[in-house]
Amino acid sequence: MRSRASPRLPVRRARAALGSVLFLVVVPGVVAGLIPWSITHWHLDPAAPFIRIAGALLIATGVGFLLHAFARFVTEGIGTPAPVAPTERLVIGGVYRYVRNPMYLAVGATIVGQALFFGEPALLGYAALFAAIVFSFVRLYEEPALTEQFGESYEAYSRAVPGWLPRLHPWDGK
Description:
Blueprint (H helix, E strand, L loop, with lengths): L8 H32 L8 H27 L26 H17 L3 H29 L1 H9 L14
Helix pairs in contact: 1-2, 1-3, 1-4, 2-3, 3-4, 4-5
């Protein structure tokens, strides 16, 4: 008989999926949804059509990468992006082979995309504030926590895969 402390893999993944969806709605939903809405009220200010198209592409790309990154946490890491329910395994597949912080980049791209799409310069200031807070969080909390949790595996990964500017070719894990 299995103990409750060690559930089967499908159960652990289901819990990770539920936790990740909850985290997705609460954190990126507020940061890239509710706060930008409170600034723009989704009102379109004047903007050139090519700027609106660029904004729409950034939003779509950001949301797509964000969902991909969240899925990697569930399927590969068997956990969530939330610090209170971290992954069991280091997530280094998919988009993580190119850049260590795709979720933050995706949220930032979504915010900048909204600034362009809605013609709202205030969102660019908000995106800069978001970037400063995220960079500080990553340096002061996340990287030390990942080093402590995954040790040499994370150190090797962080030496090979840049944090903010994606590699041109995927890291092969060696």
